Amino acid sequence: MDPQTQNTSLPRVQNVEKGVSDLELGEGVMEKLVSPSGEDMNSRAQLNVKDNRKNVTTGVTSFDSRITFYSVATLVVITILVGSIFVLWFDTRNIGTLHKLLYVFLSAATIPYIGLLFICLCNDVPVPSYRLGAEGRFGIYLATMVVIYCISYCIEDFDVMMEVSFLAIMSISGAVAIVQLHSPAEDLNSSRTTFILVLGTMSAILGCVAKDSWMSLSGSLCFFMVVMCLIKINCLAADHFEEQQRERRRRRHRHPDCSKDVGE
């Protein structure tokens, strides 16, 4: 064996002798433990695969969660199509061109949206491969509240304001639903998606109330800030709790015999 080949193979031999071979992950990825003698390697790997499959079917890709996401996506498509047909063909109000163009754009956007829904139905259930974290979820909540608040505050006509705010809430919810069906984030489940609808509705009410006077505007903005602080605290607390749960699962994977003894 020439010196170059010996130098390249030496680290591999040392790694095998030390028993260093780990593919470790907190959620959704298989953790593989290899001992120097190689015993129990297959059984532990199979156990990890079963645990990961169990996690996949009980999280954002569970049957109930996917049914919720499909329901939201279907409701968005039906709402936009029915609304577009009514406004463009049967509405006798003297609405502006921008109002009609909004419905034309939304109805056209439902075509690729339905295609994505069909792809999600035909493909296998995806495995969550990333996490939004507290900052990511808070960003979605904040963006939803700010957009809906500005819409409801800036549009003077009450009927048009309610209509556009509703379309904006449905569009945001539909976007989240299709992402969770196609490439799901592990920490954005169906209940948190429903929470986006609640925040959007509350923001529309705050923006509508803020039109009355400067005092109403100041009060609604103060309430807005308090709500966002509470949501931020909730996101951080939920992230901390989920991190603790993942750490417990890692320990059980690394020391299955010890956890079994403790349970007995």
UniProtKB/TrEMBL annotation:
This protein's UniProt keywords: Membrane, Transmembrane, Transmembrane helix
Keyword set includes Membrane: yes
Domain of life: Eukaryota
Spans traversing the lipid bilayer: 67-90, 102-126, 138-155, 164-181, 222-241
Protein name: Uncharacterized protein
Species this chain originates from: Arabidopsis lyrata subsp. lyrata
